[in-house]
Amino acid sequence: MIKKACVDFEQRASVVIHPGCGGSARNWKPERYRVLCQILMENDLSVIVTGSDAERGLAAEVIGREGDRAISVAGTTGLNQLAALLQQASVFVGPSTGPMHLAAAVGTPVVALFGPVRNTGPDRWGPLGNGHKVFQPPVDTCKCRIGHCQLGDCMDMIPVEDVATAVLNAVRKRALQPQTNSGDLPKRTSRT
């Protein structure tokens, strides 16, 4: 699968974007992920979009016209392949999902997007370990239901440019650090 994706991880830093969450948490709209893809590619990063088989359409929407420079592997990876891909990536970006936790578990820095709903927030479900960045809308904790935000869509309050800056900073930082497997158990990260 990784060879199929035609990504040379040693020649160019890569960012895995997992835009789906299966409806389990607040999330960015696909067009916000698409703008993020464009910014990252303008900064000479490879972008790999992951997702389930049911999220192939979402991945295609995120890639948009960038299909020749961004790669979708949505629906093509098993758990072991996804773990290997995430371990090779420079940074992971996405909402509160299993792949976010998997990225943190294999030692890849995570830039995570969380809504302000307490029971789906980063204090409970954030990535474990150090070096992760968590974004939430700058609003009080709300009791909105998934898909029914009282503010229209509070996730739009997370600026794409801020997320892109966090990703670029994480890529630079990771490039300077030697890759190690210390075996230490990860600790919960603090929210931003």
Summarize the structure.
It contains six helices and six strands, in the order βαβαβαβαβαβα. The protein is α/β, with parallel strands linked by helices and 192 residues long.
Protein topology:
Elements lengths: L13 E4 L12 H13 L3 E4 L6 H8 L6 E3 L6 H10 L2 E5 L2 H8 L4 E4 L8 H4 L7 E3 L24 H17 L16
Parallel strand pairs: 1-2, 1-4, 2-3, 4-5, 5-6
Helix pairs in contact: 1-2, 1-6
Q: What can you tell me about this protein's structure?
A:
The protein is α/β, with parallel strands linked by helices. The chain has one domain: Glycogen Phosphorylase B (Rossmann fold), CATH 3.40.50.2000. The protein is 31% helix and 12% strand. The protein has a six-stranded parallel β-sheet, sandwiched between helices. α1 packs across α2. The termini are far apart. The N terminus is likely disordered.
Key attributes of the depicted protein:
Rossmann fold, alpha/beta, globular, 31% helix, 192 residues, disordered N terminus, single chain, six-stranded parallel beta sheet, 12% strand
Query: What's the shape?
Result: globular
The value of Rg in angstroms is 16 Å
Q: Order of strands in the sheet with the most strands?
A: 3-2-1-4-5-6
**Count of DSSP H/I helices:** 6
Which stretches are low in confidence, meaning pLDDT under 50 for 5 or more residues running? 1-5, 181-188
Strand residue percentage: 5-15%
**Average predicted local confidence, pLDDT:** 81
